[in-house]
Amino acid sequence: MSEDQGRRTDRGFVVSVPIRWSDMDVFAHVNHARMVTLLEEARIPWLFVEGRPTRDMRAGCLLADLHVRYQGQIRHEDTPIDVTMFTTAVRAADFTVGYEVRPAAGPPDAKPSVVATTQLVSFDIDTQAPRRMTDAEKDYLREFLRPDARTPGLRAR
């Protein structure tokens, strides 16, 4: 897990995540399954730590949809990666997160090597049903809203 607590920028919330040797595949770039894990690790300091209005979602937040597009390679020497996260939609019980992944050494406006989206659903584990997000949760997520964001090759939901 990333020790970086992240930072707010004009493009979203950015977390630097280290690439581990075990994240690499036989072709010397980050394995797809491991990239999905790195995206998950980046979400933790943005959404689930103490002090965030969305911290209670750590008790129930499900991934409903995932899209990943590779526009360049990410290799071990690119560590850490900067993962910029933002929302493209916030609804009553779910929200869509956009991601842009770049090597940390590169400029923040460089073309991302990886773009992705995830639809996350606020979920009540006890009732096994989606739960409506609180106003504070929705307001926090809307602070990162980029409704005009067009993740290349992916549709914002």
TrEMBL record:
Keywords attached to this entry: Hydrolase
EC code: 3.1.2.-
Entry-linked CDD domains: 4HBT
Enzyme class label: hydrolase
Top-level taxon of origin: Bacteria
Residues annotated as transmembrane: none
A GO MF label: hydrolase activity
SUPFAM superfamilies, sorted: Thioesterase/thiol ester dehydrase-isomerase (SSF54637)
Record's keyword annotation contains Flavoprotein: no
Gene3D superfamilies, alphabetized: Hotdog Thioesterase
Name used for this protein in its record: Acyl-CoA thioesterase
Species name: Williamsia deligens
Lineage: Bacteria, Bacillati, Actinomycetota, Actinomycetes, Mycobacteriales
